[in-house]
Design goal:
Low-confidence stretches: none
Largest sheet: 6 strands, parallel
Radius of gyration: 17 Å
Structural class: alpha/beta
Shape: globular
Oligomer: single chain
Order of helices and strands: EHEHEHEHHHHHEHEH
Strand order of the largest sheet: 2-1-3-4-5-6
Distance between the termini: 11 Å
Length: 227
């Protein structure tokens, strides 16, 4: 069977893929991992960056003696997957980016970062704060948010990949977005689809940004079709 790695998004963890894994087990050797600082892992001293998370993937592949693997990257995970395809093309097969934000600028990054204020989340959306505690641990979740916010600000000023980097990729890429996504626009997704040399475009109907609110049967169908 084909090997498939699922990469989670910012402030997420590998646990978000739990509903999807049983649907894939008969078709793929499926793997998940948590970036450093996520899912209860110790908070690193280093800043959160796309290259930093890409190192986590390479280390995991080396530890498991995996030379090449297909990747589905949700949100930030899709960007990490494309970063790996650019800088380590021989280690990456096909890439499926799901709800990945490609257009970053200082204003947009500041807006996204402002939504990661732990104190405001505790006060206004305590249920979400509880989810984050369950994902990352009571001692870590606020630090995960602050380091992610710092990453977004830096990302807005200098994205990890340039337009030329994307245009030079030769991997087969499925660029997917939900039609109800309030973080990633259809326009920026189409622009990326047109920029990549060997891409397909997928618009998922009645689909918002949060992975937990997506139709797992539909995602499974598209994964099987593409990979």
């Amino acid at each position: 069977m084909e090997k498939l790695l699922l990469l989670h998004g910012a402030i997420g963890s590998s646990k978000q893929f739990d509903p999807l894994l049983p649907l894939l087990k008969n078709h793929f050797d499926t793997y998940v991992l948590d970036y450093r600082g996520h899912g209860g892992k110790p908070i690193p001293e280093e800043k959160f960056t796309v290259p930093f998370f890409a190192e986590d993937v390479l280390s995991w592949m080396n530890e498991n003696q995996i030379e090449t693997i297909n990747i589905l990257g949700y949100s930030l995970g899709g960007y990490v997957a494309l970063y790996l395809a650019k800088h380590h093309p021989e280690r990456v097969g096909k890439v499926f980016t799901l709800s990945t934000k490609f257009h970053w600028n200082p204003e947009g990054a500041a807006k996204e970062a402002a939504m990661l204020n732990a104190e405001k989340i505790e006060e206004k959306v305590p249920a979400f704060a509880k989810v984050l505690v369950e994902k990352h641990g009571a001692a870590n979740w606020k630090t995960v948010l602050s380091k992610t916010a710092e990453m977004m600000i830096a990302f807005g000023n200098e994205p990890a990949l340039t337009s030329e980097d994307f245009a030079g990729l030769q991997h087969k890429v499925l660029v997917a977005v939900g039609d109800k996504d309030n973080m990633v626009t259809l326009e920026e997704t189409i622009a990326m689809y047109r920029k990549l040399q060997n891409a397909q475009l997928l618009v998922l109907p009645q689909t918002p940004h949060p992975f937990e609110k997506m139709d797992m049967e539909q995602i499974t169908f598209e994964i099987n079709r593409f990979f």
